[in-house]
Amino acid sequence: MTTDEYLATIDALVVQPFPEVTYVDACGGGGPEHHVRELQVSRDFWDDDDGQAWVEAEADLQACLDDLAARLTTRWGNAFVVDLGPYLSAGCEGVPVSEPLDYLSQQAVSMQVWPLPDSGRWLALAVGQADKELPLILFAAVGQASALDLNTSGRS
């Protein structure tokens, strides 16, 4: 897909109503307060003995994320970075974690977040991987402002 196609997917995602029940489909999932889409998925790395394929795939996905981030920053201003480590730790300790933070924290280390003006939502981009042999994924996610404790200005 092209950057414009990714942006069209993001544009649809940010205005789409949240589903009443949690679901998973071929390109992501969602639930009562979130959407997650896999924008780009690399190959797997079962046979990547020297790690070169992973390095190349990570560079490609990061370049795509950077391009999208530049375009989204033009629209909504600078993103802020959310460290997903505390959400992962909380979930592992049995503390309930809001979606999509619980899911993303199991895939990625951090995410870039743009508060969406006048919507009570935020959009995030992240590159993650569930396990070292599995594909790298560029995620777009939309969540409720309350999941990140954003105030009305969109900042925590």
From TrEMBL:
Source organism superkingdom: Bacteria
Protein name per the record: Uncharacterized protein
Annotated source species: Streptomyces yaanensis
